[in-house]
Design brief:
The N terminus and C terminus are likely disordered. The relative contact order is 0.11. The protein is about 30% helix and about 0% strand. The chain is mostly helical. The protein binds a DNA duplex through helix 3 and helix 6. InterPro entries: Homeodomain-like_sf (IPR009057), Myb_dom (IPR017930), Myb_TF_plants (IPR015495), SANT/Myb (IPR001005).
Length: about 270
DNA sequence: AACACAGTCAACCGCAAACGC
DNA sequence: TGCGTTTGCGGTTGACTGTGT
């Protein structure tokens, strides 16, 4: 296969990190900054693979992390974002400053799924549970990705810039629940809103390149029809969405201080996926 | 007190995109 | 342009902790 392992497993530590390892990693990153995770462990004197260092830093050691309980508002925001984005934890995390994708993923699997199920909502499809959806009703089968075709291993993920808003979430008023409550949406069909009961106002959003929580605002702020239409065709999720350096969207000049880079996003065309 | 079970969360694994030569 | 390398993401695992019996 030719793919070299990410690290020399025989000479790396695994499992829980020690305080000393944490201190080494923090000290190194404070001195040299993030980057080149592959070579970082050696340079920092850590017997860890780069991936492990990155994960530890991103999920636990980063100084800007907000630890502690999620609020009810956070819950609702996560639910709405999940309805919009599916299991794109990194994107969801980007709308919750101080939270990591791993944290949100865990929180989703341990709390929110249960919460939605108790409300009679399928956590994957965000539709009311119906008698026929036994698999969905179980809800705790974490690999279930109904309604989010990009998760299918058989279907290669499109390039990351194709983060777009599916047409089926562009509803501003509470749509009527699907007749059968569970139509054939496993392939990402666009026949009905994914989570009608949540009344997501997802066609609404601030102008491109607004500050953090753009999407959060987009998920809850009402506005004029004209704006809705405009934003329905131009929704920029450039902030905190894993943008690599050097990438830019056309609205970069609006210069949000926190915006290290931008990515311009188009709405989904028929057949496009997140 | 001891055990079993459930819940939580840090960490690992494999894959695919992005990058760079 | 092709190919190897690096990075990032999402799914899964397993250790740890809390709770019930």
């Amino acid at each position: 296969m030719g793919r070299s392992p990410c690290c020399e497993k025989a000479h790396t530590n695994k499992g829980a990190w020690t305080k000393e390892e944490d201190q080494r990693l923090i000290a190194y990153i404070k001195a040299h900054g993030e980057g080149c995770w592959r070579s970082l462990p050696k340079a920092a004197g850590l017997l860890r693979c780069g991936k492990s260092c990155r994960l530890r830093w991103m999920n636990y050691l980063r100084p800007d992390l907000k630890r502690g309980n999620f609020t009810d508002d956070d819950d609702e925001l996560i639910i709405k974002l999940h309805a919009l984005l599916g299991n794109k934890w990194s994107l969801i995390a980007g709308q919750l400053p101080g939270r990591t994708d791993n944290e949100i993923k865990n929180y989703w699997n341990t709390h929110i799924k249960r919460k939605l199920l108790s409300r009679g909502i399928d956590p994957q499809t965000h539709r009311p549970l119906s008698g026929g959806s036994a698999a969905a009703a179980s809800g705790l089968t974490s690999s279930s990705t109904a309604g989010f075709p990009s998760q299918s291993p058989a279907a290669p993920r499109p390039a990351r810039p194709a983060i777009v808003i599916p047409p089926n979430v562009m509803f501003a008023s509470a749509p009527a629940p699907a007749e059968d409550g569970h139509s054939s949406n496993s392939g990402g069909s666009t026949d009905a809103p994914r989570c009608p009961d949540l009344n997501l106002d997802l066609s609404v959003g601030p102008p491109p390149c607004s500050p953090p929580n753009t999407l959060a605002a987009a998920a809850s702020t009402p506005t004029s029809q004209q704006q809705q239409q405009q934003w329905a065709t131009t929704i920029c999720l450039c902030y905190h969405l894993g943008v690599r350096s050097g990438e830019a969207c056309s609205c970069k000049q609006t210069a949000s201080p926190a915006a290290a880079g931008f990515r311009f996003l188009r709405p989904l065309e028929e057949g496009q996926y997140i």
